[in-house]
From TrEMBL:
<protein>
    <submittedName>
        <fullName>Ribosomal RNA processing 12 homolog</fullName>
    </submittedName>
</protein>
<comment type="similarity">
    <text>Belongs to the RRP12 family.</text>
</comment>
<dbReference type="InterPro" id="IPR052087">
    <property type="entry name" value="RRP12"/>
</dbReference>
<feature type="compositionally biased region" description="Acidic residues">
    <location>
        <begin position="922"/>
        <end position="937"/>
    </location>
</feature>
<feature type="domain" description="RRP12 N-terminal HEAT">
    <location>
        <begin position="10"/>
        <end position="204"/>
    </location>
</feature>
<dbReference type="InterPro" id="IPR057860">
    <property type="entry name" value="HEAT_RRP12_N"/>
</dbReference>
<dbReference type="InterPro" id="IPR012978">
    <property type="entry name" value="HEAT_RRP12"/>
</dbReference>
<feature type="domain" description="RRP12 HEAT">
    <location>
        <begin position="276"/>
        <end position="549"/>
    </location>
</feature>
<dbReference type="Pfam" id="PF25772">
    <property type="entry name" value="HEAT_RRP12_N"/>
</dbReference>
<keyword id="KW-0539">Nucleus</keyword>
<feature type="compositionally biased region" description="Basic residues">
    <location>
        <begin position="1132"/>
        <end position="1144"/>
    </location>
</feature>
<feature type="compositionally biased region" description="Basic and acidic residues">
    <location>
        <begin position="992"/>
        <end position="1005"/>
    </location>
</feature>
<feature type="region of interest" description="Disordered">
    <location>
        <begin position="896"/>
        <end position="1022"/>
    </location>
</feature>
<dbReference type="InterPro" id="IPR011989">
    <property type="entry name" value="ARM-like"/>
</dbReference>
<feature type="region of interest" description="Disordered">
    <location>
        <begin position="1109"/>
        <end position="1144"/>
    </location>
</feature>
<feature type="region of interest" description="Disordered">
    <location>
        <begin position="1035"/>
        <end position="1069"/>
    </location>
</feature>
<dbReference type="InterPro" id="IPR016024">
    <property type="entry name" value="ARM-type_fold"/>
</dbReference>
Length: 1144
């Protein structure tokens, strides 16, 4: 403060003020309260001296200091006149001519009113003590400005009022709103827009009743109807709609009944907006109605009973609102039918359950409308009717719109058959008994009619009725989704469903899906689950028999999978004792010599499904039954036996856990005995079973884990992807088990790695598998490995780089890439020489074969340790590729920087765009003068800004219709003042945003390809391959990329790319343009021929100015070099032929 009083130049004053502004925010509040008098006096002195200064830098920072000082004062300080005097000094600068000063003052006022510290305490007042005087100041300034032509001051005050209005008390808000409504009568476009934004800000803030009572909110809504913009005035109408929406939402929050009383009028006004020629207005009106239904109506619908046309308020308000929207189906709204249908959809969703009596006529109109010829919005009608089905239920819909299908039709038009797919997609929460009483008899009638036609030889009619009855059955899963009468209706449907599963293969998938849906999504209480489970004794034997039957030739396996899934679902609601009984019978059939191989495999599938739900005694007998199959020579039997064991070990149920604990030693012995006889297909479930067992082992079982290590390591290169994945998961779990065994994680990991190292002395396959295992273990347990262990690992792997086997070298290179990815640069620095010398010593054959892997490895080394170090440690034959890598990296960095700069530029441009619905920011429009610092920039943009400001500030007067004169005494004459220049009507065109080729074709890019291409640029594919090799990343469909990294290994079966026309290399582009004049070429022989309806076949050379370019002179000469000579040769040959023909 002392420095502030001592400075003598404007620049120093500005600098000290800026510094003081930063410091004041961190000064404790008691200090600022105590020093308020002296500090404010100093600040006010500077403000008064700088008020008329040309430079605004010091003034704006001093105003910010004043705001900070006032914000730190306690509530008692605001009772002193001096505090209010200082505040009013700050407030007066809110209408300053300089934009930066004005912004600083407005920001300071808002921060004081909203952010004063005492406003956040326990005894905080409802409003700031300065809020009433702020509102009074705004009203006085607006009244003082009056109806001036430019209305600059009014706009400045309205900009302030937009931010402070939600902070004022109710009396002040009322006075301000009355003033806002008065200035809107001036028909000044910018003033009206600014006032509307002030209302929008007030309602969006959702103030309490102390600021905006419900009655005042309702009065403002009523008053705003006098300022409805013209339907052709785009931006003001969008602002009015959004303001009215927020007003009603806020009123609904304050008082629901009053809000509902005002909604019908807004619905009527919004529906008139659907007639606007602007698509944005139509879309905004529809969105407004949808938001009002969602936020104001839907939350209170449960309080109402059934709504009828004669119901009293508030139900009568709903009727009026729905009638307004229903009128949108008349022809005069035909251009906006798609938006009307979307609003109806939301109406059905929100109110359909209670309001279905008043909506039946609308449903009939929708169905009739859909049958209109060439009706373009069938999808929207289906969605609206679907919403009605979901809300009202199928019974109400079919009462209003009968299906008109009874199996006795004379013609086969079925005009309302489209309702069946809609019902299928949307029905839920309905009565299951309605399906039994209405749709089951209908399906039976249609099926019998189809059989009659089939016997009569009318295959087309038979097919139609058969399809209809299948569509009727397809409704069943929807009826099983959250049904309301499971307890009373399922017993009447169960017998029919059982017969359909056993006797109707065509309906089996649908019925099975319905049962699964009923169990998973229909049985919400224990009583409902018990009711459905009561019929397990009927359904499960039927499902078992169906699944055990051999498939017919040509039938897919989908039906069998569906049956098995249904068995699994039904077992969740079945009594465990019943499951044990079924399991015992299945075990007996498994050991029966009469059972065929297919039957035994099917029974094992069923046993796999039942095993997790059996008790411990049944599991013991089941284990005795399947134990011989663990060493069976039949691969399928062995795999399914392991699947049974896997399900038992993985099940969370108490009997299964108890069985595993009591038979742990026996299971270990059996799994070790069957190690040599385990077939490849059985490895996946076997490894999973071992995983669940290892999770439960303690320190005394370490020998068992030790015995598993060789098998698990070898399985990391199994053919089956599932087996490889399970091998890596089991390997990690074995590491966790050793850590559990103790004594410390580091010592445990050393013991485990010693077991793994033994694989490095085995066969070539074993060595490569061991390196993959070590890579995965290093990835998972690097934090538990000491420095000596990591060094030992690196030394062993570097030695393996000298191997003559490609698989071993490939695995070692993969390990180095993971090390580079995970290990810190400082720790890795002392091993760089060892690694690079090992890589540099690769044989020529290995270097050629793994050239792309080495290139990627060198790229990572260069990124971590720099080009010079890597080049110095590698032999000379690698230097060329290193230089290429450095160039590619520099190019990549440059392109990345350019892309980033372009992206930042786009973001800045997007930020500069005005936000909807406000349009351009008021600060831009009102910036009539700038600081001297920005004068040079303003000179460059002055002309464009002036032109834009003139256009923005202009208003247009809409004349009377046709020859009628404009009546200025009309109360609605303010709607004739437009902010948008009236333009001639244009036909609506759909903007598709697709590129268009020269010939008019649309160019549509595949989004997935674009995403893949964009994403591939920043992905290190080599690291992804390594992570995939060690089971950390699943393999996705990869596209072969030409001229990119070559794959070092043979493609897997079925992954060979198919030939595609065009491309690179010998696959040349086929989309080449035909040669000039090729259309005249003769099919046989040489030369050209005349074509009917075309010009004579002369060489018409198009005149092109670009071909006069001197740099292209040689090219042009070569192109037309033989033109004249060829023409002369052709003429000479033709003349000879002509003479020859003339000779006698």
């Amino acid at each position: 403060m002392t420095t502030l009083e001592a400075v003598d130049t404007p620049e120093s004053l500005a600098a000290v003020s800026y510094l003081l502004n930063l410091v004041l925010k961190r000064v404790p509040s008691p200090v600022l309260i105590k020093k308020f008098s002296d500090t404010s006096k100093a600040f006010m002195g500077i403000v008064s001296s700088q008020a008329c200064s040309g430079s605004t830098s010091a003034l704006r920072w001093v105003l910010s200091c004043l705001a900070t000082l006032l914000r730190k004062q306690d509530l008692a300080a605001w009772s002193y006149p001096v505090t209010l005097q200082v505040y009013h000094g700050l407030l007066s600068f809110c209408v300053h001519t300089k934009p930066k000063v004005r912004k600083a003052a407005q920001y300071g006022v808002c921060s004081v009113l909203r952010g004063s510290e005492f406003m956040f305490g326990d005894a905080a007042p409802e409003h700031h003590p300065a809020a009433p005087s702020t509102a009074k100041f705004c009203v006085q300034e607006i009244e003082k400005a009056g109806g001036a032509k430019e209305a600059t001051t009014t706009l400045h005050v309205l900009s302030l009022l937009r931010d402070v209005l939600p902070c004022c008390p109710a009396a002040a808000v009322k006075t301000c709103c009355e003033t806002l409504l008065r200035v809107m009568t001036l028909s000044h476009v910018l003033v009206t827009a600014c006032a509307m934004q002030a209302f929008y800000s007030l309602f969006s803030a959702q103030p309490g009743p102390s600021c905006l009572p419900a009655q005042l909110n309702a009065q403002i809504i009523t008053a705003l109807y006098d300022y409805v913009p013209s339907a052709s005035d785009l931006q003001p109408l969008l602002t009015w709609l959004s303001t009215m929406e927020k007003a009603h939402v806020n009123l609904g929050r304050l008082q629901k009944d009053l809000c509902w009383a005002h909604l019908p009028r807004l619905f009527s006004a919004a529906m008139n907006c659907f007639l606007s020629p602007h698509l944005q207005v139509v879309s905004a009106a529809a969105q407004t109605l949808e938001n009002l239904l969602t936020e104001c109506v839907a939350p209170h619908m449960d309080e109402l009973g059934t709504v009828t046309a004669s119901a009293p308020a508030p139900a009568s308000y709903l009727c009026k609102m729905f009638r307004s929207v229903e009128d949108g189906l008349t022809y005069r709204f035909h251009a906006a039918w798609d938006e009307v249908l979307q609003v109806l959809e939301i109406f059905f969703e929100s109110c359909g359950k209670q309001c279905h009596p008043i909506m039946r006529k609308c449903l009939q109109s929708l169905c009739d409308l859909r049958l209109s010829p060439h009706f373009p919005y069938t999808a929207e009608v289906d969605q609206a009717v679907g919403a009605a089905v979901a809300a009202m239920g199928p019974e109400v819909l079919l009462e209003a719109v009968p299906l008109q299908i009874d199996g006795k039709e004379e013609n086969l038009d079925f005009p309302r058959s489209w309702l069946l797919p809609v019902l299928r997609d949307y029905v839920q929460g309905a009565r299951l008994g309605f399906f039994t009483s209405y749709f089951l008899p209908l399906a039976a009638t249609l099926k019998s009619r189809a059989l009659e036609f089939s016997q009569a030889g009318k295959s087309l009619e038979s097919k139609i009725y058969d399809t209809l009855q299948w569509q009727v059955w397809s409704l069943l899963p929807g009826f099983c989704t959250h049904p309301t009468d499971v307890l009373g209706a399922f017993k009447g449907l169960a017998r029919t469903l059982g017969m359909a599963i056993s006797e109707r293969p065509d309906l089996r998938p649908t019925v099975c899906q319905a049962l699964r849906t009923l169990i998973h999504r229909g049985c919400e209480t224990d009583a409902e689950r018990a009711e459905v489970g009561r019929f397990a004794k009927n359904f499960l034997p039927i499902l078992f028999n169906v699944y055990s039957q051999p498939q017919e030739e040509g039938s897919s396996s989908t039906q069998r999978r569906s049956v098995l899934d249904t068995v699994r679902a039904y077992l969740t609601v079945t009594d465990p004792q019943m499951v044990c009984g079924f399991l015992q019978k299945a075990s007996e059939k498994l050991t029966s010599p009469e059972s065929s191989e297919f039957a035994r495999l099917s029974l094992l599938d069923l046993v796999v499904a039942m095993a997790p739900y059996a008790d411990e005694q049944s599991l013991g007998s089941l284990y005795s039954t399947i134990q011989p199959s663990l060493q069976s020579k039949e691969r399928s039997m062995q795999k399914k036996a392991y699947r049974v064991l896997e399900e038992v070990c993985a099940a969370p149920h108490a009997p299964c856990q108890a069985f595993v604990c009591s038979h742990l030693e026996e299971l270990q012995a059996a799994l070790l005995d069957s190690l040599k006889s385990a077939a490849s297909p059985a490895k996946r479930p076997r490894l999973k079973c071992l995983f669940h067992i290892v999770k439960q082992l303690s320190a005394e079982h370490e020998p068992f884990v030790t015995a598993l290590v060789p098998e698990v390591i070898l399985c990391t290169k199994e053919v089956s992807a599932g087996a490889r994945k399970n091998a890596f998961v089991l390997l990690v779990e074995m590491g966790n088990a050793f850590i559990r065994f103790g004594p410390t994680p580091q010592e445990a990991m050393e013991r485990f790695l010693l077991l793994v190292y033994a694989g490095l002395t085995g066969s070539v396959t074993m060595i490569s598998c061991t390196v993959l295992a070590l890579t995965r273990l290093f990835f998972e347990f690097k934090d538990h490995m000491g420095l000596s262990v990591v060094e030992q690992l690196l030394q062993n792997v570097c030695l393996l780089l000298g191997s003559r086997t490609r698989d071993v070298v490939k695995a070692a290179l993969g390990f180095l890439k993971v090390v580079l990815l995970l290990v810190d640069t400082k720790l890795l620095a002392k091993h760089v020489q060892t690694m690079l010398e090992a890589v540099g010593a690769l044989s020529d054959d290995m270097r050629r074969h793994f050239r792309m892997k080495l290139r990627n490895l060198f790229t990572k080394f260069i990124r971590k340790f720099g080009f010079e170090l890597v080049q110095g440690l590698l032999p000379a034959e690698y230097h060329k590729v290193l230089v290429n890598i450095r160039k590619a990296e520099a190019r990549s960095r440059k392109q990345r920087a350019l892309r980033q700069a372009a992206a930042e530029t786009e973001e800045e441009e997007e930020e500069e765009e005005p936000a909807q619905p406000r349009g351009d920011s008021m600060e831009e429009i009102l910036a009539d003068s700038e600081d001297s610092e920005e004068e040079e920039e303003e000179r460059q943009r002055g002309k464009a800004r002036k032109k834009q400001a003139r256009q923005k500030g202009q208003a247009w007067l809409k004349e009377g219709e046709e020859d009628e004169p404009l009546n200025f005494l009309d109360p609605n004459v303010s709607q004739r003042v437009l902010a948008t220049e009236p333009a001639p009507k244009r036909s609506r065109k759909v903007k598709h945003d697709f590129q268009v080729a020269e010939d008019g074709r649309l160019i549509i890019h595949d989004e997935e390809e674009e995403m893949e291409n964009d994403g591939a640029k920043g992905v290190d594919e080599e690291v992804a391959d390594v992570l995939q090799d060690v089971g950390l990343r699943t393999k996705k469909s990869q596209k072969r990329r030409f001229r990119e990294e070559a794959d070092d290994e043979e493609p897997e079966a079925g992954s060979y790319p198919q030939y595609r026309a065009g491309g690179s290399g010998i696959h040349r582009q086929l989309g080449k343009e035909p040669a000039f004049g090729a259309e005249y070429r003769a099919k046989k022989g040489k030369g050209d021929v005349k074509k009917k309806g075309q010009l004579d076949p002369y060489a018409y050379i198009p005149l092109n100015r670009a071909k006069l370019n001197k740099r292209k002179q040689a090219k042009m000469q070569g192109q037309f070099k033989g033109l004249m000579k060829g023409a002369q040769r052709g003429a000479k040959a033709g003349r000879k032929s002509h003479l020859k023909n003339r000779r006698p």
